[in-house]
Design a protein that fits this description.
The chain has one domain (6-64, 76-90): Alpha-Beta Plaits. 20% of the residues lie in helices and 35% in strands. It contains three helices and six strands. A four-stranded antiparallel β-sheet has the order 1-2-6-3. The chain has a two-stranded antiparallel sheet with strand order 4-5.
Length: 99
């Protein structure tokens, strides 16, 4: 397993209609490093966003899709997605407020 720092774990937020609707329940969706564990994701969110307290983390591994370009076939990169549930008294995550 790679030596991951907290700033390497969270790659980018997932901005979809479904993830925006779940923000009302204080659930935020991120793409994370494929080797990251739930405990590492929890620590990274609490360190990167001040005032947040994580209640739970759900993760899912997304396989790469098969792609073709003419006769050449290949696969896209694998991803890992994390749904982070914050506690009721936790602060909001600021990057989602302007969306």
């Amino acid at each position: 397993m790679a030596d991951l720092k907290y700033y390497d774990i969270i790659l980018k937020p997932v901005v979809t209609e479904k993830s925006m609707n779940s923000m009302a329940d204080k659930k935020y969706v991120f793409y994370v490093h494929t080797d990251a564990t739930k405990n590492q994701i929890k620590e990274a969110v609490e360190k990167m966003f001040a005032g947040t307290k994580v209640k739970s983390v759900n993760t899912m591994n997304l396989e790469g899709k098969n792609r073709r370009r003419g006769m050449v076939t290949g696969k896209t990169a694998e991803k890992k997605k994390a749904i982070v549930q914050l506690t009721a008294d936790s602060a909001e995550i600021e990057i989602f407020t302007g969306l």
